[in-house]
Design a protein that fits this description.
Layout: H1 2-26, H2 31-40, H3 46-57, H4 63-85, H5 87-97, H6 100-117
Helix pairs in contact: 1-2, 1-4, 2-5, 3-4
Amino acid sequence: VLWMAAVVIPISIILEVFVSASGAFLSGFSAKSSISIGTSMISRGEYSLIFASLGLTAKALSNELYQLTGVYVFVMTLIAPIIMKNAPFVKRVTSLIIPPLLKVKLKQFSVTMGEKLLPKD
């Protein structure tokens, strides 16, 4: 189970931060706020334990996947505050990865969508 967790957890963290931060940014939030939102969404999963328990009881889930769910939720709960505390570092790394032209276009889209989705009234 640990090898599965070692593969799933980093991918899950990257995707969770990317998807949540992208949604926030494209809705008009600043880059700093978007990364903060993205990093705060990592620690979720208490419902996963309930659904995994129901799946195991109904024999719809293997014992290995049930164990993986427990490890996943535990590790994500421990890692979340660390990543949230380091949101400025995550923003700097993200800023280095995104090409400058794409940053400009994304910001234009963000401003346009932000006015539509989050009116100032």
